[in-house]
Amino acid sequence: MYPLALYALLQLFGFVYALEVSPNSPCFSVCVDDPKANPAFWNSSTTTTSDLVCNDWELVGPNATSSGRLFHDCMLCEEKSTNHDISSNENDQYWFLFHAKYTIDYCLFNYTNENPTPQSGQCADACRGPAGVIQQALEDRLVQWDPSRQYQYCRDNGGAFAKNVDTCMGCLRQAPASTTLVNYLHALQEACEQQPPIGGNTPVHLSFDLYPTTLSSPVATSSNSTAASNSTTNSTDTTTTTNPHSDHRAIKLGLGLGLGLGVPAAILAAFLWLLHRKRLRQRIFEKEEELRRLQEAQAAYHQRMQSEKPAFPHEKPAFPHEIAEMAPGAAGRYFVAEKHGQPVSELY
Questions:
Q1: Which of its termini does the chain have fewer beta carbons within 10 Å around, N or C?
Q2: Is 6 left (phi over 0), alpha (psi -120 to 50) or beta?
Q3: Could you tell me the CA-to-CA distances from 12 to 112, 151, 286, 344 in Å, in that order?
């Protein structure tokens, strides 16, 4: 019931389970697993938390999951793609960096994730940076799509990301199944160093393989001096003309985030509601049964009283002052009755 309802909701809004790509991207068929989706539509793809992958083994190898393989192939394609859709102002490099940030936030900082991962338990503190500057930079308006903010994480807090990310990567190298998380941080670090023009024909050139074949050897740490110098040159947001699609994309990202969080909550809420209804019906049934038993008892009482009428036709219960005291040991009760017009007292 619930998967069908969710599927209907996604179809109603034109969304499918897939990773974000820009319209008409050459990566569309790799990142979107719905053959009916139109690659020219900006709303043909969206990334939800169910698409994110935290562990190396989920991406490659015999135990890789379907979502892990899709994420792996999509990231490799977007890494090298320079597709830029003019009408929506989207580009694949933006989504490549977005997916790297979103995965780090989800897996390390439990962003929209209620279930802590091994990586977050071991390295969350080291990766937040002093006063949480790394976490703030990577989570800053994450789901508010704005192409001008493609490298904003590099500039936040005076370039704090580039200055402190090496400590985080050092911790993750010791954490289990975390080589890809190290590589995502390294890719974000090199993007800060290079900062190719947004929407241009030059992608970020990584000096390492994003997904090593074995996923066991750590990547080399590049110097962050260039990143620090670049990030301190501009500590404010870039001002650009408002894109007419930005509100739609922000809503879309918010829905993707909400679906990742809200579907389990909605299922739980529906279950609790059904349970409440069941208990309410049970209580109503019990009350109705109790009322029925009371009505039956009342009817039986009246019937018994009718069958136990006094022998004298005009007999009536005496008022308190008319009732004589009962003799010690006597059984029954006294009634005052009229017999042949004369009041008499008899033991009944």
A1: N
A2: alpha
A3: 24, 33, 43, 90
